[in-house]
Specification:
2 domains; single chain; 67% helix
Length: 434
């Protein structure tokens, strides 16, 4: 029995088994408003760059024109689970790599997230795979073999499924270059970024768009900052800037403090938003020039979950989605009674989100291990670089706080912490036997 269990843990196909179990129990998966938005584009063929063009294009293929959405959630959970397994094998000690991977694969952090139709899932998988190659090759000290090339470029391509994926990849390699000062980092990093960029450009042109990301959605965080500044500290905004704001909408419609902490629901219509994309950046920059500390505080409050400082807001971000948000859209559970039995397990992870979803905590864990654990530095230093790149971009540009945005940090931090803790335990137990 023990040998069979160990053989299962060590199996290279364990990720397939766990993926199918999660997928079958909750078939066809979890769906939020974002999921339905992307799926509707896949069904209609009217694809925009709101979610990046690559995501609905891929869904159109995977779901057979939107008719079988469950195929997409299966692809997502398989991809994420493989990435987690691959990361553990390359970043953790051999004594604990497979067990750590198995533990993560059966948790909602990987399983429930994986079966949610979000473009965060392929992006997370891409960052994990890319990071794994960096760690495995000791930051590209040697030439890559065919398998490493395939994983590097495959990971880079997957990162482009979210608008912040490509910038995160770029900043990550810049950090590595600053530390390693290696031609190989420049060479392979540039190639990976180029793969992601070309994929983004090609898919964007395929759907007839001219920008990689919708300007309306790219400026959400700016509009939130402006609304928060006007609602909480209007004296910092000059009359000239107020005049520019009124070109977008009346000042009364800008007055909305919701932008300080979450998604900003402004009082003006979508037509006003679309017509003002050329005005909003200039308004934001002038407010930032007048009150940079105030803007940074707004971002610190909104994205507190990214900071290694325990606060009530920071420790309770939205996290795992465990429902089909709009059950009247033709998608429903195949076995609702089975779902009802296992859903409390998923929701338990949401209940534990001060630990499981607090990205700032796991950033601090990586920092601590990088400083105090010499044995783990080969893994923790690149992981810390990736985490800082991702969290820095989220802190600056994310319009809302959401645990899924920082999913790569959560997985990497928890995998490394558990993996090296298990390795320490196994080594201590071995010494006692001697």
């Amino acid at each position: 029995m023990k040998k069979s269990f160990l053989a299962l843990i060590d199996s290279k196909y364990l990720f397939v088994l766990t993926s199918f179990v999660w997928w079958v129990i909750f078939y066809p998966g979890f769906y939020s408003g974002d999921s339905f938005g992307a799926l509707n584009q896949a069904k209609s063929g009217q694809i925009s760059n709101v979610y990046t063009a690559a995501w609905p294009l891929t869904l159109r293929v995977l779901t057979i024109g939107g008719r079988v959405p469950g195929l997409a959630t299966l692809a997502c959970v398989l991809t994420l689970s493989y990435a987690v397994k691959y990361f553990c094998q390359n970043a953790l000690p051999k004594s604990s790599a497979n067990l750590t991977a198995a533990l993560l694969l059966i948790t909602p952090l990987v399983g429930a997230m994986g079966i949610t139709l979000w473009h965060d899932i392929p992006m997370t998988a891409g960052l994990l795979i890319t990071l794994s190659v960096v760690i495995h090759t000791s930051t590209f000290k040697e030439r890559l073999n065919k398998s490493e090339y395939a994983h590097l470029f495959g990971g880079a391509l997957l990162t482009s499924y979210r608008p912040n994926g490509l910038p995160t990849l770029l900043v990550f390699f810049v950090f590595l270059l600053l530390v390693a000062r290696s031609r190989n980092v420049m060479k392979y990093g540039s190639m990976a970024v180029l793969v992601a960029l070309l994929f983004s450009v090609i898919t964007t042109f395929m759907v007839g768009q001219r920008s990689l990301v919708s300007p309306v959605y790219a400026q959400e965080w700016m509009r939130s900052d402006i609304a928060c500044s006007w609602a909480t500290n209007p004296t910092k905004i000059s009359k000239d800037v107020q005049g520019e704001m009124e070109r977008v909408a009346p000042l009364t419609q800008w007055d909305n403090a919701a932008g300080c902490t979450f998604l900003n629901k402004l009082g003006f219509g979508s037509d006003q938003v679309e017509r003002s994309t050329h005005l909003v950046p200039a308004i934001w920059f002038r407010i930032f020039e007048a009150d940079p500390v105030g803007i940074v505080k707004i971002h610190g409050s909104r994205n507190a979950y990214l900071l290694p400082i325990p606060t009530t807001r920071g420790m309770n971000p939205p996290f795992i989605h465990s429902i089909i948000e709009f059950p009247d859209q033709g998608i429903s559970y195949a076995a609702p009674k089975v779902v009802a039995i296992f859903r409390p397990y998923v929701r338990a992870w949401n209940g534990l989100r001060p630990i499981t979803a607090f990205a700032g905590l796991w950033l601090a864990v990586l920092m601590g291990l990088a400083i105090f654990s010499k044995q783990s530095r080969k893994s923790t230093l690149p992981a810390l670089a990736m985490s800082l790149a991702l969290e820095g971009i989220l802190f600056a540009f994310a319009p809302i706080p959401d645990g899924r945005y920082a999913l790569p940090v959560l997985i990497v931090g928890q995998a490394i912490a558990v993996g090296f803790a298990l390795d320490f335990f196994f080594r201590k137990r071995g010494q006692k036997k001697i």
